[in-house]
Amino acid sequence: MYVALFYYSLFILLACGMTAAICLSAYFVTRRRADLCLVACYLIYFLDAAIVYQDDFVTGGGAFRNASFFYIGHPILSAITGAGAFGCLWLYVCERLEVRGRAMRAVPIALLLVLPPVLYQLIPGTQLAEFAFFFSREVFMGFVLAYVAYRFATASDAARMRMARKRREFWVIVLLTCLTALENVAFILLFDPSRLDAGFLWFFAERNISENLLFLAMAVIALRQASQTLRLRFDQPPTRESENVQQSIDAVLPRFCERYGLSARESEVLRLLVLGKDNQNIASEMGIAASTVKVHVHNVLKKCGQPNRQELTKAFWAR
Is the fold of 2-225 the same as that of 243-317? Predict the structure, then answer.
């Protein structure tokens, strides 16, 4: 059992490092800040998952002791890494949903940073104090999911259709967040370590398997997204009319056009511009005059605030 737990822990750390590295590669290609948020999230969660090993390696204090099962070894450091990892997830959501208010971005993260160690010091009894400390993460995650649901309910039809494509991933995250909360209740509030042999149960002190699975599930989602981006950039720029390119354009185009107020005709012109078509080819494909295409291209560049087609294409793929 100890060997299995050892390799399980290594797998979690490896998955975090690998996810951060691949998301960083996607960021270098697209310069999309949302990818950078994921890089920071998984690097910080790597540290959060590794904190519990500090005493094992430094002082050899990892042996199971009933008196210290509910004791958090490094509350300040755990609060920082927890706020960092979950806060970066919130920043990722803000980037994807284009939340620009600084207070809306910063205040939830600040609360997650400050409240857990304060509650840990104020609540009497290590058992309830540990529960309040770690349950703050699930409350924060619930806030993030509730905000995503609110934005979905109040979005335009085009944006709602785009967000609906991720509904399966959304419900998986909701389920794993609920399981994380239930595991905290079971192991912190209901579990009595004095009634069982020590065995390998010390492993679950300051660890949450469901939370690990939550981050693994989000890592799979992030890796799928990053792999699509990197695959498209294999032949840079992505101007081939392949199925993958068309699907990616379809995923980005409605939100991009909605943000900059492009008309239906300008939207079609933008699609062909992203595919690398010149004015004559666009005119032939759309069945309009080349001079009309020139006017549409000028309007698209002006509305999007881009000086030329190359910068427009970069701005499009950065979304």
Answer: no
Instruction: Identify the CATH class of 243-317.
Output: mainly alpha
Q: How far apart are CA 136 and CA 181, in angstroms?
A: 10
pLDDT single digits (tens) 111-138: 999 999 999 889 887 788 888 999 999 9
Rg of the chain, C-alpha, whole Å: 24
Q: Provide the greatest CA pair distance for the chain.
A: 83
User: Which architecture, in CATH terms, is 2-225?
Assistant: Up-down Bundle (1.20)
Burial bucket for residue 4 (CB in 10 Å: 0-12, 13-18, 19+): exposed
* pTM, two decimal places: 0.76
CA 208 to centroid of chain Cα atoms: 19
Ranges of the chain with pLDDT below 70: 1-2, 55-71, 192-206, 233-244, 319
Domain locations along the chain? 2-225, 243-317
For CA atoms 294, 300, 303, 309, the dihedral sign is negative
How far is it, in rounded angstroms, from Cα 270 to Cα 168?
30
Q: Taking the chain, what is the end-to-end CA distance rounded to the nearest angstrom?
A: 46
